[in-house]
Amino acid sequence: MTGSVEYIRREIEAAAALPAERATTLPRQAYIDESYFQFEAETTLKAGWICLAHVSQLKQAGNFLAVDLLGEPLVVTRDKAGGIHVLSRVCPHRAMDIMPEGFDYPRAGRASKLVCPYHSWTFDFDGRLKNCPEMHQIADFDRADWKLAEIRSEIWEGFVFANLSGDAPPLAEQFADLSRLIAPWKTGELDLVIEIEWDCQFNWKVMIENWIESYHHLGAHNTTLNPMMPAKDTWAEPEHPHFVHCHLPFKQKYAAEIEQAIAGGPQPAGFPPIPGLSLAQQVEWNIYVGYPCFMLATMRDRVIWYRLLPVSAERCKLLTTTLVHAESREALEYAETLAAETKMLTDFHAEDMVVNTAVQRGLHSSYVVRGRLSHLEMPVWLIHRYLAARGQGRYPGDDLHAFGTAAE
Ligand code: FES
Ligand SMILES: [Fe+2]
Fold this sequence. Notes:
Layout: H1 3-17, H2 29-32, H3 34-45, E1 50-54, E2 63-69, E3 72-78, E4 84-88, E5 108-110, E6 114-115, E7 122-123, E8 129-131, E9 150-156, E10 159-163, H4 171-174, H5 176-182, E11 191-200, H6 204-212, E12 235-236, E13 243-249, H7 252-262, H8 279-282, E14 284-290, E15 294-298, E16 303-312, E17 315-324, H9 334-362, H10 378-391, H11 402-406
Bound molecules: FE2/S2 (inorganic) cluster and fe (ii) ion (FE2).
């Protein structure tokens, strides 16, 4: 481990050991140092579960979706039996990425087989080699031995997750409490109807910290989100080893509108409500980060999911999406609502892109200080505690005293 990685680790452990009311920001190097990113990639990202797709993006046999995760070219597929796989896109013949970016090969869609463009070997959607021309003269060559490698995956509540290290504890166990919290939204049955891609010139932690704290409603979203969900009313649940959970309650005026809609009054703007939600579930947004970087928000009429793919210390790729109840698509004003909600999702994330990009730029300055966090930023401190724990091969809350001793 390099000196810079050791320094950053110790500083994060020290920050994590502080009580919430003394919490500080992390050293700026944690967001810009490539060797620390490599350390984090191994201990935190590859060792964890990263969400790659939602099942509604792969409804039919033969659907596929290319995704690049931490240098690994991957493809998520639906096979003929209905199974979902996360496969390596690296051809077992001469190592070609079978869906290279930037060369006009489709990276998502539906096909009868996967074809490597180099020598036309073809593969089934479970990775098996179907056909390989002109290999019959070759000694000891059995087609069954040559597959696209399969990456360990789990489908959780309709989301497809991959674990690159192959040895993370089962996701269903880690997210069991999260499953209970989001169960009423039946996310496995929703349809992904909006997706917007963003190439982000900032560290992946800048994104999740921004996602999970609502203190910035006061600044970045002062005219968009703050009037409806004022920063001062937002709050976070206590520490959980595998996710952060925040509540963003509506201002009384908006909560009253929902109450009237439930009683048969006019429906507020948006998609038709997701059936079966209680009043309490409808009058706030619930925001989650499932560690390391699964971002989810549940709302009255939709679920927002952000797919974050860290690339390097100062770059990540983001897909911002909206999922709705299948029947929403049959509503009379669906097309207008979809257009309005696509604009809304774009507009409020554009506000976050500005601050995140500017934070990353700020982190390069020699005048950066270790800032203090508001009580409304407790979720950021929880993320720091998670980072410190993963750097030690643990999860937060495993042993509260370990932070203090490890930093000495
Ligand atoms: S590299 Fe894929 S068929 Fe040759
Ligand atoms: Fe934001």
